[in-house]
Write a structure and sequence with these properties.
This protein has about 190 residues and is mainly beta. It has three helices and 17 strands. The chain has helices spanning about 5-10, 40-50, 165-170; strands at about 15, 20, 25-30, 55-60, 70-75, 80, 85, 95, 100-105, 110-115, 120-130, 130-135, 140-145, 150-160, 165, 175-180, 185-190. It has a six-stranded antiparallel beta sheet, with no helix packed on it. A hairpin with a 5-residue loop joins strand 10 (about 110-115) and strand 11 (about 120-130). Bound molecules: fructose -6-phosphate (F6R) and manganese (II) ion.
């Protein structure tokens, strides 16, 4: 396999309607998969009563699996709100905590919520077409669609990074991104 050739197929074969890249594996997350992620529990239950909407899909692309290789995920996060909180991804730390990641915005408008695992300090950084967000190691990260169109982005991370969702489920992000007067604002969860 030639990773260079395969990588160039990544965008060419991407189907924005289905969120898939040819036959590459694609994970879909619906509202029901995001229980516990939104700060307004009642608004979440009300939204779920309206239907189990598709929130995001991630097509992964793994040209090679050696320790120095890179994996990519092409995410498409739908626009929407649960109460005053924008549609978001589950969020995770990397199992290999030192592993950093580069996010490249492709289309739409959103932000990344980054939270240092040790200090719990939060940052909200813009993610949109042509913007790049560097996620350092030891940093919980979540993607949030603050616009009215699907937010598409590419995440590039070491093949051995792994995804630790358990740590987030045990201790959620300290901060939330809420829609206040039509704009995204970083707020403390409590
Ligand atoms: C990979 C990465 C992204 C996310 C994607 C979905 O390390 O950060 O590809 O996997 O944005 O978010 P999660 O994995 O939190 O559901
Ligand atoms: Mn990641």
């Amino acid at each position: 396999m030639n990773p260079l050739i395969d990588l160039s197929l990544l965008l060419a074969e991407f189907d924005p309607r289905t969120g898939t890249i040819g036959d590459e594996p694609c994970v879909q997350r619906r509202l029901a998969d995001l229980r516990g992620c939104f700060h307004d529990v009642q608004a979440y239950e009300r939204a779920l009563e309206q239907g189990n909407a598709l929130v995001y899909s991630v097509a992964s692309f793994q040209p090679a699996d050696g320790p120095g290789d890179l994996h990519c995920g092409l995410g498409v996060l739908q626009p929407g709100l649960v109460g005053d909180e924008y549609f978001l991804t589950k969020g995770h730390l990397h199992t290999w905590r030192e592993a950093a990641e580069i996010y490249i915005g492709l289309s739409g408008e959103g932000v990344m919520l980054l939270e240092d695992e040790a200090t719990r300090g939060s940052r909200m950084l813009p993610l949109q077409a042509n913007s790049i967000v560097y996620v350092p190691g030891h940093t919980a990260h979540r993607t949030i669609n603050t616009g009215d169109q699907p937010l598409a982005y590419l995440g590039i991370y070491p093949a051995g990074a792994g995804h630790d969702y358990h740590a987030i489920a045990k201790q959620d992000f300290d901060s939330v991104v809420l829609r206040c007067d039509g704009h995204p604002r970083l707020r403390s969860r409590t």
